Amino acid sequence: MLRILANTPYRRLFSAQVVALVGTGLLTVALGLLAYDIAGASAGAVLGTALAIKMVAYVGLAPIAQALAVRLPRRAVMVSLDLIRAAIALALPFVEAIWQIYLLIFLLQAASAAFTPTFQATIPDLLPEEEDYTRALSLSRLAYDLESLLSPLLAAALLTVVSFHVLFVGTVIGFLASALLVLGTSLPRPRPAPPRGVWQRTTRGLRIYLATPRLRALMAINLAVAAAGAMVIVNTVVIVKAGFGLGQSQVALALGAFGGGSMLAALALPRLLDRIPDRPAMLAGAALLAAGAALGSLVDGLTTLCALWAVLGFGYSLAQTPSGRLLRRSAAEEDRPAVFAAQFALSHACWLLAYPLAGWLVPAIGLRTTFLAMAALAAFGTLLATRLWPPRDPDDLVHRHPELRPDHPHLAAHRADGLHHHRYVIDDLHRSWPRHA
């Protein structure tokens, strides 16, 4: 897997991702402490609102930001957004009111909503071979999992010698280091897209996404991932502290089990996807999430919880990590940023639904029934994905263009006057999926 780091531009971008993730992890810890410093016992409500603001920014702004930035050089866009994020993080220690936290978090996540899809759409251009790109996806998943494990430990170590306000400085350093690494990276120029209006550019990724069967299935898998993942993220502390009467270290241990399972899947995926297609792997991951969430209603101690969380982590990574491959094969090169932005927005819309459900249902119907309800939601997503994603899903499809003149360049390029075949993606000439496909 690590051999792809021999690609210098990718290695620098991956390093930028890692240092930015460390900075974001420190920000998460510092933000919780800042909220407690300002709001006291209401800190949980403040953080919950900040998390909702983050999701709203991701869902609403990713396609718009991508549409506005599509004609700008990628490197300049990413460096500028890193500098904006660093400036906002630098301002956070000086806030004195809760509304200021909300405003700065919205601005920070708005910048991330523009940065992340641009970054993700750049990697397939750097690694055109599918085998290399698969390994890059797994490496990225490992980076996220390691960050979730190591950033809290780093923050805890720093807090023994400095105030939590210093953690924001670590976040600023992370974003500045990311900007420097991106600035020093030579990125390929994306293929220029035909001129379009802002509204067309904003909605293009969503239109391509929703017109492609495998991507509609990916949306359903996103729902299964969010339903089970939200139970882990939202309710681990409730289960461990209120349910088992244990402490903070046991909370960290349970979350570490989830991250460990995810890392194990990320390590196994490159070889697995060399042998089987994306569809059975991702559907198996979604089914594992639904079954694991249902088994959560039977958990009776820390050992069984950690074992179940490891299984859910494995399913989480198995269902989610190959999604980049689907996006890459489902869009023309010039449309990739728009499609990645659509996935970013739609997947976070699922989290925007799942987070409050996982939090609000527990006091209303109890923890065990909440597990079953979220398992049902994950099972619905899995079954819907199975239905939407055809078992036979080739890239090359036979189709016709009755609307085109016989001398149209597209038909001439494929030496066809009727039925012809090629790699099929939704674009200006192919606005809907062939029915026989």
Task: Characterize the structure shown.
This protein is an all-alpha fold. It contains 15 helices and 2 strands. The protein has a two-stranded antiparallel sheet. Helix 8 runs antiparallel to helix 14. The radius of gyration is 22 Å and the shape is globular. The mean pLDDT is 84.
**Which structural class fits the helix and strand makeup?**
mainly alpha
| Largest sheet strand order | 1-2
Find the count of extended strands (DSSP E, 2+ residues). Answer: 2
Number of helices: 15
Q: How far is the first residue's CA from the last residue's CA?
A: 34 Å
Q: Biggest sheet: strands, sense, closure?
A: 2 strands, antiparallel
Order of helices and strands: HHHHHHHHHHHHHHEHE
Helix content: over 70%
The poorly predicted ranges are: none
Rg result: 22 Å
Question: What general form does the structure show?
Answer: globular
Q: Classify the beta-strand content into a percent band.
A: under 5%
Mean pLDDT: 84
Topology, pairings included?
Blueprint: H1 8-39, H2 43-69, H3 74-91, H4 98-126, H5 130-159, H6 165-183, H7 198-211, H8 213-243, H9 248-275, H10 278-295, H11 302-320, H12 323-329, H13 336-365, H14 367-388, E1 396-399, H15 409-413, E2 420-423
Antiparallel strand pairs: 1-2
Helix pairs in contact: 1-2, 1-4, 1-5, 1-6, 2-4, 2-7, 2-13, 3-4, 3-6, 4-13, 5-9, 7-13, 8-9, 8-10, 8-11, 8-13, 8-14, 9-11, 10-11, 10-14, 13-14
